[in-house]
Amino acid sequence: MDEAISLALREWSGKISHEFIFGIVLMETQPTHTLDASGLLCPEPVMMLHNKIREMGKGDVLEVIATDPSTTRDIPRFCSFLDHELLGQEEHGQKYYYYIRKG
User: Fold this and answer.
1) Measured distance CA(27)–CA(99) in Å, rounded
2) I need a labelling partner for 62 at 20 to 30 A (CA). Which of 15, 29, 52, 81 fits?
3) pLDDT digits over 46-101, tens only?
4) Which CATH superfamily is domain 31-101 in?
């Protein structure tokens, strides 16, 4: 992310909504891959994520769509453990969205 944008986000983080900040981050990092794990239950979403990440190049961004609430715990841990950057996560209705940059 551009240094000026990053600085502005930190300065304004208490004054603007999370959704606005998240939208700016996504504009700067459009996903290059998508993984739809809707309808799958633990451990399948993380297993599919692991396989998909292997196919990607370093720095590529993956959008993961899931319906299993356990992904809110499992996907951030996966990213942390394997040194991938979790750019953001959000929930809309019964779906969870994750944006991951391959490390």
Assistant:
1) 12
2) 15
3) 999 999 999 999 999 999 999 999 999 999 999 999 999 999 999 999 999 999 99
4) TusA-like domain (3.30.110.40)
Task: Pull the structure tokens for residue 10.
Answer: 């930190």
In the sheet where 85-92 sits, what is the strand order? Answer: 33-37, 61-66, 95-101, 85-92
Q: Which of 61, 2, 54 is nearest to 29 (CA)?
A: 61
Structure tokens at 40: 């799958």
Domain spans of the chain, in order of start: 1-30, 31-101
Please name the residues in contact with 29: beta carbons below 8 A apart, sequence gap of 6 or more. Answer: 1, 61, 87, 99, 101
Catalytic residue chosen out of the listed positions 24, 42, 56, 86: 42
Q: pLDDT band at 30, cuts 50/70/90?
A: confident
pTM: 0.75
- Check: CB of residue 32 under 8 Å from CB of residue 62: yes
* 42 in catalytic set: yes
